[in-house]
Amino acid sequence: MTPASAADPKRWWALAVIALAQLMVILDGTIVNIALPSAQRALGMPDADRQWVITAYTLAFGGLLLLGGRIADLVGRKRAFVIGLAGFAVASALGGAAAGPGTLFAARALQGAFAAVLAPSALSLLTTTFTDPRERAKAFGVYGALAGGGSGAGLLVGGLLTEYLNWRWCLYVNVPVALAALIGAQVFLRDRFGPRGGHLDVPGVLLGSGGLVALVYGFSEAGPRGWTSPWVAAPLMAGVILLAAFVWWQHRAAGPLLPLRIFRDRSRAGAFATMGLATIGMFGVFLFLTYYFQAVLGYPPVRTGLAFMPVSVGIVIGATQIAARLLPRTAPHTLMASGMVLAAAGMVLLSRLTVHAQYVPHVLPGLLLVGLGMGLTFMPVYATATVGVPTQDTGAASAALTTVQQIGASLGTVLLNTIATGATGRHSRAHGPADSGTALAEAMVHGFSVAYWCSAGVLLLAALVAALTVRRGKPSQAGSKPSA
Fold this sequence. Notes:
With 484 residues, this protein is mostly helical. The chain has helices at 3-6, 11-27, 36-43, 52-75, 77-96, 101-129, 133-164, 169-172, 174-188, 202-225, 230-250, 266-282, 284-296, 301-307, 309-326, 332-350, 359-386, 394-430, 437-469.
């Protein structure tokens, strides 16, 4: 045990506080999905506007993550963590009490903004609290399980709250959770300050956040509007230009928003790339299976949420019981590549689903493989991407990793949904007019199958990237010469 770990006897309680806050952020990405129809009816929300309940959160969260991470480095991780928690609680209460769509949209945007401060500070606190390799593996096993499994759990919690209480409780539930985490933060969290100084890179904030917001907005609009729409093409082009200018500026800024030295180590860069490809390939599964369970198999909301639980269980087992135990003595690229191959195998099984499939023999095996693969991959990715980063850059590195995950999830959902929709249309045209419920369901399931095959291909590419780029040893100190 390292002295740093020994000096903090409350570190496992600190992990519980960090995990609670992270779970709240991850849950909020999906908890309102099932509640959205109820909220739309209650607030008189037009169909054209309902997507903003989701988009407002993802825009603010994805666009402000780099700023949130740098704030954590400048003002202190614990202070940023507390600010993020308090703001998230207030925004959640505001959303739960919303009397109209505008208030709800604004509250969701505020949630995303404070989540952008909370998420990187939580990960950087975890990075600086656990330095012993074995303890670090256990801590990141818990964190990886929450990061991967929280989305599925959010669907279940959202279904339960909507069906048995009210859609507003999908937002109100964050208030007591955040208050409990705030109390725990004051008692158990200790910030390990690195070298301080410097100032906020304002041009970097404008270029980086502007580029990310433009990209996330373009991806979110591609589904309803189509890729050729100027409302999609213009933001995507603007996002690419702004991010290219952001990278150029980061090379020249005295105190960059995102120090590019973080990416100079091959293993760390490989972990980032693996995370991006993994989220592109994996997160579409939640969208397609939600439609499959409800529109094809006729599941109600709570049963739909329960149907996703094997994914969460698989992630917990893969991250905490397998990856966390193996990482101290196994090369991280072995775990990452194996996890991606397992997840790809799960996608292949899901591609074989039909309109008459049964849950246990046909759906369950694929869900378990996907969950195990995600757990085996995410845990070593988080550990590898953050180890060796200087203390003053842990917030920026944590924010960059979370940004890659967020952008990958947004891009993957849009791309896979476009592929599935196109395949559904081609199937309908090839088999005549889909004027019956069965014909529509068969065309939909065919589209899902094509998308699952594409997901499997992306996940196998992630396995290859991990195997070729991530080395056995831990990444070098950012900015120093990588070790051989």
